[in-house]
Amino acid sequence: MTLAWIPLLTLLGVLIPVPMERFGRRLCTLATATPVVIALILVLSQLPMLLSGGLPHFSLTWIPSLGLDLAFRLDGLSLLFAVLILGIGLLIILYASYYLSAEEASGRFYAYLMLFMTSMIGIVMADNLILLWIFWELTSLSSFLLIGFWSHWTDARKGARMAMTVTGAGGLALLAGLLLLGDMAGSFDMGTVLASGEAIVADDRYPIMLVLVLLGAFTKSAQFPFHFWLPHAMAAPTPVSAYLHSATMVKAGIFLMARLHPAIGDSLLWSWLVTLTGMATFLYGAWFALVKTDLKAILAFSTVSHLGLITALLGIGSPMAIVAALFHILNHAAFKGAMFMNAGIIDHETGTRELDQLGALRHAMPMTALVTMIAAAAMAGVPFLNGFLSKEMFFAETLYTPLLGGLGWLLPMLATLGGILSVAYSLRLVHAVFFKPARRQPPKTPHEPPRLMRAPAMLLVMICIAVGLFPALLATGILELASTAVLESVPELHLAIWHGVNLPLLMSLIAIIAGVATYGLHIHLKRFVRQFAPIDARLVFEGAIQTIASIAHTLTRRLDNGSLQRYMSWLLGGALLLATLGLVQLPRLDGGQATHPVDGILLLGAALMIFGAIGTVVSHRHRLISLLMLSVVGLVVSLTFARFSAPDLALTQLSVEVVTMILLMLALFFLPQKTPRESSAKRNIRDLTLAGSLGMVIASLNYAVLTRDIDSISNFFVENSVPGGGGHNVVNVILVDFRGFDTLGEITVLALAGLAIYKLLNRLRLFMPHSDGEGRVWSPDRYPMILTSVSQTLLPLALLVSAFIFLRGHNQPGGGFIAGLITAVALILIYMARGVEWTQSHLDFPYQPVAIGGVAVATLTGLGSFVFGYPFLTSAFGHFHLPWLGDFELATAMLFDLGVYLAVVGATLMILANLGKVTTPHRPRKDDSRAGTQQPQPSSKEPR
Amino acid sequence: MSQHLIILPILLPLIAGIVLLRTRAGSSRHKRLMSALATILLIAVAVALTTTASSGEVTYYALGDWRPPFGIVLVLDRLSALMVLLTAILALGCVIYACAGVDEEGSNFHGLFQLQLMGINGAFLTGDLFNLFVFFEVLLLASYALLMHGGGKGRIQAGLHYVVLNLAGSSLFLIAVGVLYGATGTLNMADMAVRLSDIDPERTGLVRAGALLLLVVFGLKAAILPLYFWLPRAYAAAPAPVAALFAIMTKVGIYAILRVYHLVFGDHAGSLSAPDQPWIWWLSLATLTMAATGVLAARDLRLLIAYLVLVSVGTLLAGIGMRTPDATQALLYYLIHTTLVTGGLFLLAEMIGIQRGKAGTRLVKGRPMHHANLLAGLFFLGAVAIAGLPPLSGAIGKVLILQSAGPDQQLWLWPILLLSGLCALIALSRAGSTLFWRGQDGTPGHTHVSRCQWFGVVWLLAASPLIVVFAGPINDYTAATAEQLATPETHIRALLPDKGDES
């Protein structure tokens, strides 16, 4: 459990700083540091167990199906990194409290920093591959926030995004790699994975997995060619640079390689890839560190270079190389941390980081100068400092590795070259900042910073010196402990300053002497470099992203071009293709069922329907004619129903047809009489082909279905209609009983349609044409006398018919739906004859409640059966006898049907009233006398 | 009442809808209270349903007391319970958010909202193919009305595309149902499955035509390439709570595909089993690719989120395309995550847009925001979740799906899915940096942010960390769901005790 507390403490630390901020910077810093100190103590408290050969471990099942456990381990390697992370973290917290100006949100800063610390701790302690990945990506996220902390600054924003994109992409590759790795090892448990190295290397997928994992590691550790984000991440506040971009986050990639080394490191592919990438990065970074002029940029490239060095050591992979790598990780963290902090101090006190404006600072800042010089010397590999020791080990390893065979001399040569460059840039930095007189004045007059701000760097430099002088005493223990986690057998360590005169020492000497000389020739180098146009990775990156975005934009536009016709053709084309695929499997279209003999009437009907359908299409640009043609189709369909003894369907179809036609005509009024020619000939052919073939496919489907006999559930309905549903009209019983639930749904749909149309038209104000397509003015006689009187007479009659149709519905053709439509037709007629205003003032009831009331009646009927303990919509019926009237039947289904009736009437009228209303207020009036009387009160009434 | 539990997710919103819609006028306070209460009750009902379903038993409710296969049945199993619960949770966030004032921008908001819920729940619960069509209609019309809420040119235009395409889809649905009924003689899905297992081989072509036509319809609803074009603009134009609720609409399509092609066209259907398979897999990858492109291209936050919805659709469909219980389990987890998070993001986008005044949700420099820190924090949370970065739910879901891919599928799925994640990462970091970081001139407008809005966003986005913490139990449930889905025999036996054994 102790182990779980370590990340948990730092996680709690995320919550502390923001509320503590108001108590002042000092307290806030203290409060933030507290959990870190406790965590550090907890880490160290595990030492005895580790030294006695145990492995502190914690595990909690989280998502078994994923193989993800909340599991932590603290072996030597984790311990080394954890101490590094927490220890340097503490120093950074202290340093940042002075670095951030008073008005900056230190609470937020610390919260991000603690989040980052948690994720780093998570990475190094994770005992599960997926858990490791989770923390891995968390470092990218938290570093995004930290780099972008000065978000008003465009460099910071872009730098943050760049870092996030590159490391995020690497993280995704890593995920793929780790999933493969887990698959090969058979488990995501770290112990299992590390133990199954041989099986992993032998696996077919090993190369892919290795490349993916290394992509993750290389992007994170800024290895060439993915290094470019790191210099731009320097837009972050300096404590962040010191912490993330030199001491910890960039070491995560290195950590990963070291961690997984036992599992995946034992192959030639690994050695080649890792060593060469490392060497390339080592040289590349060193070169650019020499030519950059921004203090932090120099340090950034130097960091890239040192990361390359460590990577190369891991690639070489011999036991001593691993130890050297771990050693250099520690050393680099110490001296580079100090360098960054001092760079921050210089920036803070002078207001600039440009070498041009800095110079001769040794007078103003003697202590800072001293500390920086020692750290730089360690960086350059000057003897008696820690950097010297690990660099010499590096030289030795490049000499002894068998990797390049006959070309074996290449590695030590390149290593020496890198060493020369390191010395040169370290020297240049120190000289330019502290000794050479400044060419321009810095923005602020420099002076020494507060003592406590200097303290962290001084502490680090003291470590550099101490380790440099007494390596055997101070470093051997922890290195041995850490390497046990990576190596099966730890080599005997002899850390010492003096190993006698040997090749590595010679290489060091050459590096130092030639390095000094190189700096002497620096001015020529500068001239040489100037010939090349500088490449700003940020511009390239931003440009690339923008190009990608604009290509994506073009692509998207091309596919998704906003044309409904195109979308429709995809839909219908898809249906055509898929239905065809089914149809072609049918052995023959005709299913063998005997067809009805064809007679003259049928032929005539069919001909009419075809004529109507084709006419609709041909005349589609003359909307009114097209609509009339469509109505011919509808009429013939209802006649067809009648002919084939489906009177219910015929009635329904007929009334639906009438109502929709009238509503469509009303809508047509607002549209231009003629549609302009919009489609090209090509498009017409496409549409014709699509529509024609889809029509044929659907017709074939129909034919195939109709000519096959089916053993369907409909027999049940026929048999049970009277005994179970109490009605002789099976269609109606199906509608209101067997499948009453469908009907309830459909009347809800109807009511919804009314509401939707209300919403659509409610605020619409349309242009009112005052003449038709040919320019003839609409007749001023808007409410013809004859129509008015006929419609009024017709209304009671229609209501009577509705009642009749409704009542007989259960046993004979009819029912609520048809009755509702008939009522609606009669009301529509009144509307047309009298206009909206008159009708609304005389039929003074709102329509929405009628429609909704219909749904309510139907629902209540259904709910009624709850009382009797039956499921929703269970029907009941009975025969009653009343004097005079005789026997009659009452069924709950009739109540349900009443709901249907009301919903139909209400919804239709809602649509009608709203369509009519759109016009009223604007209608240009020819007839002035009427206008005078009616003008004042147009839409003053609430629309229905 | 407990015997009626299964129908409550339909009746409850229906009754609430009726009461709310009985008049257009009326106190908005009462309406809000009523709507919120109904939704909270719905959550309670859904929780009860999920508890019942988690026993693994399949239960049904015979409407009108007509036994299956003759009457319509509602079927409760793990999947339908899960979907209903998810809908209810999402709906609560939306409805509370709407109470901040969106509901007053037009008429009848809450009533339509409840009927929309009725349609969605009905689609999840029904065991009858034609009834599924009816509920598709209910939710289509309700969603169309809601899309129009508040009016405006953009909404009407996007709404037209939406409604025309979906009405065409409905016609195809009817044709498909007609063909299937003609070929099998039944509408009950379980019964259809039984009949398919010994269908006259002469008819398989006909059944296949019907089955594939259904795929077109469901594909349109789920927004699969090349049928997704209605989605980005409609979602970007819809009022925020409606867009957020629409997060579940594509999942209705996903659900229908899962249900129909597992239950009706399961392994028992012989040559007819899984006719969707070859299509879904490749189209899902294409959808992922194009949606990721759209994510990169989007220049408006809401459009960006709409394309992210499409990315999630592609991911889910890829899961369906693999058709293994593992993949189904993974996609169900991902489905929970993506529904709630995209819902929350739509709400958040509108809050950001209001604060930025004229700049709105366009990804350009705008005026500074009140509550910028809080909004930025929520945006960061949502972005991390939706981009599939740890430690939030998107990452877990994505890893589950990646892991469920077989060796052949890995080759395609892994790069595409991971790269789409990268596209999301790039686009979201650009968006976030422009919205919250880029130097903003001017003074923040005095826009009031109501507590309802905060609640809505937090309610939905907080789900992401929660479903990470409880990923273990959730995965147990989804694993059992996938198992249940893969063995339709249990389902059939529960509905048709005398026929189930034959299959």
- What is the residue-mean pLDDT of chain B, rounded to a whole number? 91
**Global morphology of chain A:** elongated
Strand content of chain B: under 5%
Count the beta strands of chain B.
2
Helical content of chain B, roughly? over 70%
Q: What spatial order of strands do you see in the largest sheet of chain A?
A: 1-2
In DSSP terms (H or I, runs of 4 or more residues), the helix count of chain B works out at 21
- Give a quick account of the main beta sheet of chain B: strands, pairing sense, barrel closure: 2 strands, antiparallel
Runs of chain A in which pLDDT lies below 50 for 5 or more consecutive residues are 921-944
Number of helices of chain A: 40
Assign a percent range to the helix content of chain A: over 70%
Determine Rg of chain B (CA atoms, Å). Answer: 22 Å
Subcellular location (chain A): Cell membrane; Membrane
GO cellular component, one term (chain A): plasma membrane
Organism (chain A): Aidingimonas halophila
Membrane topology (chain A): Multi-pass membrane protein
Short key terms for the protein model shown above:
heterodimer; A: 944 residues; mainly alpha; two-stranded antiparallel ribbon; 3% strand; elongated; B: 503 residues; transmembrane helix (chain A); MrpA_C/MbhD (chain A); Multisubunit potassium/proton antiporter, PhaA subunit /multisubunit potassium/proton antiporter, PhaB subunit (chain A)
